Every structure is written in structure tokens, then in C-alpha cells.
Amino acid sequence: INFNVSQSDDDFYEFRPSDAKDMGRILNDYKQLNYDMVLCMGIDDKTYMNIKIATINQGILTQCITARNATDMKKMRTITGKVALQMACKLGSDAWILENLNDIPDAMFVGLDTFHNKTAKRS
Predict the structure, then answer these.
(1) Rounded CA separation 117/119 (Å)
(2) What is the pTM of this model?
(3) Of 9, 32, 51, 63, which has the fewest CB atoms closer than 10 Å, so is most exposed?
(4) Which of these, 90, 80, 81, lies nearest to 113 by C-alpha position?
(5) Contact partners, residue 22, CB within 8 Å, separation at least 6
(6) Closest CA to 47 of 29, 22, 28
């Protein structure tokens, strides 16, 4: 899958915490402009949940990078690779392909995703 990323001053929206209740409207604005995905950077856990709820309601893909990850320069290379893989998968690419499954024809493979809330120490 190829990424076509465009960037102009009009493409950026500076999010403020008071905008959380308007997240649906904000994402809908990008959807109306024919965006395939919105990248949200530097957000906190509460904002993340608001974005994901709005994502479901508005039907537009989002990729979030928390403030903690966006500012950790030691982990930036790893984080960038993982984020690129997540974005590619959301846009229709395969993360992994299993080959030679003839030996186990009745197998089912299941993937799970979790959100870890570090501040509340729960998932």
C-alpha cells in the first residue's frame, strides 16, 4: 500500500481540550473534505476515548498518538514504525501473512487489541 500524504496549513486543526464534545463535528469536517484518515497527535487518555467514539459515529479512520509517545524521542523510531503499520492496516493492507497453512486447514487465528490506561492502572 502506498501513502499519499499532503500537508498544508489548512490541513491542521489545533485541538483544545474544550473541543472534546465537538470531536464528532471536527472529524465530520475532515470527512466532508474526502480525507481517508485523520492523525491525532499529542492527546491525553480522555481525548483518545472521545476521538474513538466520534470515529465510530462519523465513519472516518483515525490514528492517535498520545502525548506520552509523541514526546519520547528515545522510542520515536519504534513508535513511528508501529504507527505506520497500524495506519496501513486501517487503510486495507495486511500486517502479516501466514503461508503454508495446508497442515492446519481447520485453524482459526484471532487477534486482540487492548487499550492500556496507565494513569488508572487498568485496561
Answers:
(1) 6
(2) 0.68
(3) 9
(4) 90
(5) none
(6) 22
pLDDT tens per residue, range 56-80: 888 889 998 888 787 878 888 888 8
Contact 91, 61 (CB under 8 A): yes
CA geometry: angle at 57 spanning 52 and 63, to 5°? 30
Cβ-based burial of 49 (10 A; exposed 0-12, middle 13-18, buried ≥19) = middle
- The C-alpha cell 482459526 sits at 108
DSSP class of residue 111 equals -
Q: Which residues, in sequence order, are CB contacts of 35 under 8 Å at separation 6+?
A: 60
| pLDDT (tens digit per residue) in 20-59 | 678 888 888 888 988 888 888 877 878 888 888 888 888 8
